[in-house]
Amino acid sequence: MDGELLSQTFVELTDTMVAGFDVIDFLHMLTDRSVQLLDVSAAGLLLADPRGELRVVAASSEAARLLELFQLQNDQGPCLDCFRSGKAVHVADLNDTAARWPRFGPAALRAGFAAVQALPMRLREHVVGALNLFRAGPGAFLPEDIRIGQAMADVATIGLLHERSMRRSDSLNEQLQTALNSRVVIEQAKGKLAERLGLDMDQAFKLLRDSARARNLLLSELAQAFVDGTDTLTASRFGQRQPGIAQVPGNRPGAG
Amino acid sequence: MTVSRSARVWGLVAAEAASRGREMSAADACVAAVEAVEVTGAWLSAADGAEMGHLLRVTDEVSEQLAELQLTLGEGPCSDAAAVGGPVLSSDLGDAEAVGCWPVFAPAARQAGAAAVFAFPLRIGAIRAGVMGMYRDRPGSLSDFQLGDALAFADTATMLMLDSADQAEGDRVAGSGPGGQPAELAIHRAEVDQATGMVTEQLGVGIAEAFVRLRAHAYAYDRRLGDLARDIVARRVRLSPDLDVPEDFPV
Q: Residue ranges of the domains in chain A?
């Protein structure tokens, strides 16, 4: 465990939870940091929508095979078990799970993962989702890593609610649905951008995210504007930040 | 569990349409929702770009007033829901939060007879079809189960609105699978959303039309939407603007 990276991570996380907070970008950063801090190969945050379906809102990689592994878990797998029980699920060796998860186990092994963990995202008595961690090599997860992992899951839950009151379950449901819809917008934007520029989905996502950060826009808003056609994703030439303003010719400072 | 809720809700909407002797439409989703979600009334507005547009259906006078009030005042849970892209659930229009958010709408709505309002944007990501609003004459939140149903009715209304916009084709194809059951309604797959985005570029159309064309293509070639989407994302299949026949389509 890299102590300095851990401290830096928590400073960064709390820094983001202020004005202009971008919850989608935050959740992505959390999955990236989980991979770096916890000796795992891939991480994903899944939220349950009120229909009872587990859906990915952020992942450390946009690789299709990884996303498929998350989606598979709507039928069976550690995330589903974790979500239903509200308890963490740890599997040190997926080779032992043939009986438990006859479809998920082999699929995860084929994707190159031998160990998996699911940590519950909880708000009081509500389980809202799970942090799903995959490792390439088999082996038990260290107690210290499990504690930090659970803390990351808890921070994700808090981040979802940010300034809203945690007491109203209505707020939680509103925020969950909004986050899930934002994810769909981002997927649509990825597809459009990947097709336009001949990129893979991972590259397309990074381009969107970097562009949003450079221009101080919310990732979901930029994705929406790009899909709508009101934003062409060109960064301002002069490096100035104009939040929410589409790149209309003649609108750039100093142009002409 | 997911499939059965979608199928059940679809069945309720189909029954509503059948009881009126007509084809399923988004208006039927609005009407059927009232009894299922246990609200007092509901209304449906189409989208006008990013704004709320014209009223398509109301189930009672109070619903009509609530819809009109929000259009007139330019504030309210429906416009917030449309702007934010997520539901706005106000279980008590008299509480500080509601009055703070909608200083004119909240008291006016209560005067009209509404104690709680729930607004659901009809959206699939960037695709905006409209907004569905519901009200109760008593304060209180929707239960988890009721909220799940409300969202399912909103999804159903969204699909029906997208399909009806494409009725020029003449066939009711994209919304239903065999036996009129909702095909793929319950399944949110990243590939479907990504493929929709890709198709906007491939066909040079907007996102709503891209989605309709994608589903029509799956239906016409008797393919599951998720499988077609996966092929498009993997670039094994591509929709073409000329003949709507994909290149390298595995026959």
A: 3-164
Specify the 3-state DSSP secondary structure of A164.
Answer: coil
Tell me yes or no: is domain B187-233 CATH 1.10.10.
yes
Residues in chain A with CB shorter than 8 Å from the CB of B200 are 191-192, 195, 227
Express each pLDDT in A77-92 by its tens digit: 999 999 999 999 999 9
Q: Among all residues of chain B, which has the CA nearest to that of A195?
A: B198
ipTM surpassing 0.85, yes or no? yes
Each residue of A172-215: pLDDT tens digit? 888 889 999 999 999 999 999 999 999 999 999 999 999 999 99
DSSP-based helix, strand, coil % in chain B, nearest 5: 50, 15, 30
The superfamily (CATH) of domain A3-164 is GAF domain (3.30.450.40)
- Considering only CB atoms, which chain A residues are within 8 Å of B233? 64, 191, 201
- Is residue A103 within 8 A of residue A72, CB to CB? The reply is yes
**Hey, are the CB atoms on A187 and B88 less than 8 Å from each other?**
no
Contacts of A220 in chain B (CB under 8 A): 85
First to last CA, chain A: 53
